[in-house]
Amino acid sequence: MEIFKIWESVFDGSDRLVRVLAAQSANPWTSEQVMDFEDAYKHADALGIAPYFGNALGNPKTQDEVTQMSVDEVLDKCTEFIAKGNETIAQQARLAKQRGLRLVAYEAGQHLVGHGGAENNEKLMNLFHAANRHPRMKQLYLDYLAGWKQNGGTLAAIFSSMGTYSKWGSWGLMEYHGQPPAEAPKYQAVLEFLNANPAWWGAELP
């Protein structure tokens, strides 16, 4: 709120200023604490969360079990995570709306990556890379984005636009500049979703 006041002094009355309160996506309780602390929601415009899916598969405690899965089984699990996440998104959107705020995603997308030592499991890494490159990932992203919108989400910053896959994750919608779109299912999905919802974001892509 202190920082908001500094920006407000410069952009007073301007619609260029959007004040975002950030919270933990999977834990709506944190959103309530952040928004209600000293009535912070009265001085904000949006609640920001990061509704990733698939992060549970990178748990070091279950890495041996996960490495026995096929790519399709990983994607099936992601389908389950997305469905469960939609319930949380709806709850987050409801909490934000009750306080006059809109729900945004400051980061979003798949989160298939090992952590806590599991990032060094080469078999796990290769499995996650293959899942990100699989054609089914396109439909997963389309379902994911549709669920975000239908359950009250607005602006979503997909992480990230481009990046080489490594043991630290498969974040890019594209893996490198100039990659053929036909080889980038996540990129295909985002463009298709945006073109199918021009009124939602205000433009149409070629």
Compute the number of strand runs: 4
Q: Please, how many domains? A: 1
Low-confidence stretches: none
> What percent of residues are in strands?
5-15%
Fold blueprint:
Elements: H1 2-10, E1 20-22, H2 28-36, E2 46-49, H3 63-66, H4 71-98, E3 102-108, H5 122-133, H6 136-150, E4 153-158, H7 185-196, H8 198-201
Parallel strand pairs: 1-2, 2-3, 3-4
Helix pairs in contact: 2-4, 4-5, 4-6, 6-7
Can you tell me about this structure?
The chain has a four-stranded parallel sheet. It has one domain. Helices cover 45% and strands 10% of the residues. With 206 residues, the chain is α/β, with parallel strands linked by helices. It is globular.
Structure in a nutshell:
The protein is of the alpha/beta class. It has eight helices and four strands, in the order H-E-H-E-H-H-E-H-H-E-H-H.
Essential attributes:
206 residues, alpha/beta, four-stranded parallel β-sheet, 8 helices, 4 strands, 45% helix, 10% strand
